[in-house]
Amino acid sequence: MSRTRTALLAAMALVAGATGSAIAAVPGDAGAAAVPCTVDYDVQNQWDTGFTASVTVTNHGAAKSSWAVKWTYAGNQKVTSGWNARITQSGASVTAANESYNATLASGGSATFGFQGSYTGTNAVPATFTLDGVTCNVDDGGTDPTDPTDPTDPEDPPTQGDRVDNPYDGAKVYVNPEWSANAAAEPGGDAIADQPTGVWMDRTAAIEGPNGKMGLRDHLDEALRQKGSGELVFQVVIYNLPGRDCAALASNGELGPTEIDRYKTEYIDPIAEILSDPKYASLRIVTVVEIDSLPNLVTNVSPRPTATPNCDTMKANGNYVKGVGYALNKLGDVPNVYNYVDAGHHGWLGWDDNFGPSAELFKQAATAEGATVADVHGFIANTANYSALKEDHFSIGDSVGGKSVRESKWVSWNRYVDELSYAQALREKLVSLGFDPKTGMLIDTSRNGWGGANRPTGPGATTDVDTYVDGGRYDRRYNTGNWCNQSGAGLGERPQASPEPGIDAYVWIKPPGESDGSSKAIDNDEGKGFDRMCDPTYTGNPRNDNNMSGALGDAPVSGHWFSAQFQELLKNAYPPVS
User: Fold this and answer.
1) E strands of 105-245, at which residues?
2) I need a surface site. Which of 36, 95, 269, 336 has the fewest CB within 10 A?
3) Per the residue annotation, which of 40, 132, 292, 375 is the catalytic one?
C-alpha cells in the first residue's frame, strides 16, 4: 500500500490526493515561468519499514550544467540506496546531486532519479524542495526567470544575504592559473592541471600580488571569466594571524605576536573591501579562515609536554581568538562570502581532551570581536595535511587479542581513525554548541590519497593489535603528528560537492606541489623559518611522539614549488590519476 499526498500550487494549498506523489500543478492562468522549478515526488511502493520513491525535477529557469535537489523529512526517513543521482543525507536533510551523465538540465528540461528508504511510524512526503538553493513548487508572483532584468534571473547577482546552503552544489570551482601552469609543466601534470585549488593570502603583499604574481583582484577577475553564465566558487585562504603557527616555525608569518591592529587594518580590512566590491557579487566566495591557529591554544600550551613558549604567548594575549573573530565579522558581512573555520584534523584533535575543548574554543572565537555564529558557514578539516579520508581495513570498534584498536601505537587512544569520521563527529559537536544545524564541513583531500604499490588491500594480520592496524592502514606516516612534505603521500579524492552526509565538499585547499617548509634553513623575505619537522633526519619531539619526521629532502620554503613532492603525489595518487 502506498501513502499519498499531492502538493497543489493552485491557491497555494497542499491537498491530499490519491496519486502517491507530491507535484506542483501550475494554474491555467499562470505560465511555467512563474515557478522556477517543479518537483514530482512519487512514493511508488511502501511496506511496514521501507519504501521506494521516484523524483522528477523540472527546471523552468536558465539551463544548468549541474544540479542538486534538496528536501528535509519531517519524520525519521533514511535513504538507503539510490540510482540516477548521488544521494546523501545528514540528519533529516537529503541532497540528490546529478551524476556525470545527467548533469545537463536544459530550460524546461527534466531529470528523474529514484531511491529506496526506510522509516518507522509515518512516511510523510516532504513539504519543500529546492533546486540549487531555489525553492520549487512555489509561485513567485509571475516574474519571468528568463527575463535578464528580472531579479529572479539565475544569472543576476545574488541579493543581499542570499546565501545557499552549500556553495559547492551546482557550481564550478576556480582553477588558479598560476598553480595550473606549474602542474602542467610537470611530466604527467596535465592530467590534474585543471583541478581547482585554494588561493593563499599568506602575507599582506599577497593581496596586491608579490614579485609579478597575481593579486586578489587579479584572481577574482579571472574567476569572473571562468564563471561564464553558471555558478562558480572562489576559494581563498585567510592566513596571516599575528604570531602565526606558534608551534611550527616553517610557516611563521610576517606579523609579531602583538600586532593585532596591523592584522585588522593592513590585512583583513583590505581583503574585505575587495571581496565586497559589487563587481564580484555573483561569485560564491569561500574563505578558509586561519589554518593551524586556534587548536594550538588547546594542545600546545602549558602544562602539556607539547607546549611551546610562542603558543603560551598567543593564549595569554588572546590575539588568535581576536583575529579569527574579527576576520569572521568583517568577511561575514559580505553577502556572498561563506566562512569556513579551520578545525585541525583527527590526528591532532581526535582525543577526548582535545576534541571538546577545541570545539568550545571555536565557539569562543566565533563570538569575539563582533562576530556571531551566523558568520560561520562551516568548518574545514585536514587543511594542508595528510590524514587518510577513510580507513577501510580497521575501525575504532575493532579489537585483537582482547585489545582495542584504540590501544594500538598508531591510534594511541584516539577516538577517530580517519578524517571523514572525525569531520562528521565534529560537525555534530559544533551544532550542539549552538552553530547552525545546516553547518557543513569541508575536507582537504589534496594530499591524503596514500596510493601506489604499498597501499594495503586488506586488514593486517591478527597477530597483535599493532600488526593488525599497521598492516591495514593506508596512512603510512610514522605518526599522525607528521605534517611536512610527507614521503609516500599521494593525491587524494578529486574535488567534489556533497560527497557524504554533513560534508559540503572535498576540496584541494593546499595546492599539491607547494612545499610545507624547507628541509634546511633558507634565507627569505617572507618571514618563514626553518622547522626541524621538515628535515628528513629529524628524530622528532613530543608532538609526534618522538618519531622520525618522514619529510622529503631538498625542499624549498613553504609555498614554493617543490617538483619532487608533486611527482611523489602524482605517483601515489588514490584514486589513481589516469
Assistant:
1) 110-118, 129-131, 134-135, 171-173, 199-201, 231-238
2) 269
3) 292
